[in-house]
Amino acid sequence: MKHILKLHVNGEDFEILTEVNKTLLEVLRENLGLTGTKRGCDVGACGACTVLIDGKPQLSCLTLATVVQGKKIITIEGLAREGKLHPLQKAFVEKGAIQCGFCTPGMILTAGAFLDENPHPSEGEVKEAISGNICRCTGYVKIVEAILSVSENQ
Amino acid sequence: MPYALYAFHKEGRMRLPKFECLEPRSLKEAVKAFAADPGGALILAGGTDLIVNMKHGVIQPKRLIHLKAIPRLAYISEGKDGLRIGALTTLHELVSSSLIKKKYPILGQAAKEVAAYVHRVMGTLGGNLCQGNRCRFYNQSVFWRGVRPTCYKAGGEICHVVRKPKECHSTYCGDMAPVLIAMDAKIKLVGPVEERTLSLKRLYTQDGKKPLSLKKGEILKEIFIPPPAGNTLYLKWRLRDSLEFPIVSLALHLEKNGENRIDRAKIIFSGVGTGPVEASEAEKMLKGVSLDGPMIENVSNQAVKEISPMRTSLASPAYKRKMAGILLRQALEKTGS
């Protein structure tokens, strides 16, 4: 049986008619067309589905859409402001931290939430923070450099 | 395999089955709903274990009772008699808490060993303690499991680890339980008729199919830790330094008296049994002694005799036994110095 979900995503309010058993990942991608959030493993082991809920990272593949009603959801699409890239997005582009780009949305959102709590981390702390975001392409070196460059400039 | 379960993995992904999701506003409401539906309802907190198992089709609750809307279940508060942690406190809150860093640092250190950053933000202490047992034949998708008959834990007849019926050898792999048991933690359970407090160790049945001793309708509310004494270490052995469950892990707690002799020892392993495993004979060997090379060797050898790892993961039981001994040796050498 369908019910109406009221979700607040990237600053906008949406009403979505859907089943109870939908994960936030499914609703974001299929009902809202926000395909920036990726389905990697679907079981919470790769981090590609990471979104921000009230500023904190969360795996949308393991989150029921119904329980995040009334919370502030940010996907990768909501990071740029008025066409201006977030410092992390800019750093990832400039440092060559993006190859296929599949891990990138989850990687950037995780890094952003981490830097909010820990503005001047060591390299080891950055690596630890992104250890839940798997990248098959880059070998992580440029990703860590990009995140560190943002923390240094803050 | 039944078609209804096959539908789980249509289009190459795992859809959740249909269920009802309740969001009670009080623990009393939650307990009432849980007690009213013992067969079909399960408790949802962070979801990092439960939702995965639902996607794999090994559990099929008709109803989920979501606890995160209930106020005042997440807290870290210190009193004269010790530390009280609400069951819905996230692992990330344990890692970040300045009170814990100052007075009970091992709790934050152990919490930081769990999975990765995002899992610790979602996952709760209660959920970590109550996590399901794991096995390479159980924690797999409908598609993967379809090549064999359903295993006993997932509702079938046979355990594929030992190829015998009506047995379950799934492994307890939690990180927080060994540390908390070593620190003599107690838990408060709230049920439909009564509240009860018991030692955390007694939460675990050592039964792979039903690992928790919760009675009908009981929900874990609070974890209590006595004031810190002695030294507690947690060593986790796994292939990566993040994400993974332990191959084997060890919580060692030692209290020494003035003459550097051991007053009290706790040796608790994870990853080597159907529940957290306490090496009680090894603990007895340590009482009243001063640590030296030969004693450490003897205690480690004894502890290895008290664990019974099964082939529930990629690591062989022989390897787990060897690593358990090595971890204990390392831990004793570290605290001895």
Please describe what this structure looks like.
The complex is a heterodimer of chains A (154) and B (337). Chain A has five helices and five strands. In chain A, strand 1 (2-9) and strand 2 form a beta hairpin. Chain A folds into two domains: 2-78, Ubiquitin-like (UB roll) (Roll), CATH 3.10.20.30; 87-153, Orthogonal Bundle (DNA polymerase, domain 1). Chain A is α+β, with helices and mostly antiparallel strands. A five-stranded mixed sheet of chain A has the order 2-1-5-3-4, with helices on both faces. Helix content of chain A is 33%, strand content 18%. In chain B, the strands form four sheets. A five-stranded antiparallel sheet of chain B has the order 4-5-10-8-9. A four-stranded antiparallel sheet of chain B has the order 11-12-13-14, sandwiched between helices. The model of chain B has no long low-confidence stretch (mean pLDDT 95). In chain B, helix 11 (280-286) runs antiparallel to helix 12 (293-305) and helix 12 (293-305) runs antiparallel to helix 13. Among the domains of chain B are: 3-65 and 135-165, Uridine Diphospho-n-acetylenolpyruvylglucosamine Reductase, domain 2 (2-Layer Sandwich), CATH 3.30.43; 231-336, 2-Layer Sandwich (Enolase-like, domain 1). Chain B has 13 helices and 14 strands. The chains are: A alpha+beta (154), B alpha+beta (337).
